[in-house]
Amino acid sequence: MTPLQKAKDLMDSGQYMPSLTILNTLNGLSSKSESYRLLFMANCWYHLEEYDWAIDIADKLLQNDEHNELASQIKYLSFCKLKDYDRAFDEIIEFLSNNDAELYKVTLEEFLTDIKEGFINDKEIISKIKELALQNNCLK
Fold this sequence. Notes:
The chain has 8 helices and no strands. It is mainly alpha-helical.
């Protein structure tokens, strides 16, 4: 078992600090393995409620792989936990402006429900959500 796999197994069993200890020592990885390392680190920090660290690491990953929807979601969720809803929404818009939604389809559908139920009232935000939902086949 590789150290990266060991770190993943620890992370999957909720042992985030031991996982981070391993992940922090890994270097010289292939670009694919480095992407996994950063994703695992961001996920661990998120679960440890260190949202700023999760955002920073997810951002590093997105600089190398702008199509990594999981990293974008970690940033989005971290911003939400920090109650920085403007930056959370900006993250979704930035990601979906350059990528198709897979995981974000659920989020877009939730936003559409929030609009329908009157929880989102800003016309500019409503327009952008509907545009992204249409672009990603989320309108019913």
